[in-house]
Amino acid sequence: MFSFIDEQGCKVDLRFDEGPFEIEPKHVLVLVQKDGKWLCTINKKRGVEFPGGKVEPGETLQEAAVREVYEETAVHITDLKWFAYYVVYDKEPFCKAVFTGKVERIDEFIEEHETLGMTWLTIDELWNEPNLSFYMKDAGMKKMLQEVKNHERQW
Question: Residues in domain Nudix hydrolase (predicted)?
Fold first, then answer.
């Protein structure tokens, strides 16, 4: 387990296994890389971040991950793999499941939700992005990206 304090001052526990969970995951985050660049969404309020969001009633974590990536970026993903999960001890603690996926195809983006679309960033561009979302700046995100590299799956 990797514990840290996030940019909002909350304790966070990050784990690279599939549970058991002390809090059931109700949120998802998806890491997608293509041609050496990471898929990011441009959130209207928070800025540049990895796609993800809340699981809707009756939806599995995997279904939510695929849906959220598409809604936020117009990218269809396949080969979804469990990667990690983290618990944020906010006023109301929550758990987020983290997946990796591969690009199947990219549709034209039509702005319908809270995002302005997608951007593809190298790791250096990501860390130097001036409009980076607060949660992308914490130690947990750096640890996740380090673990992705250490376990090098075929993108």
Answer: 13-145
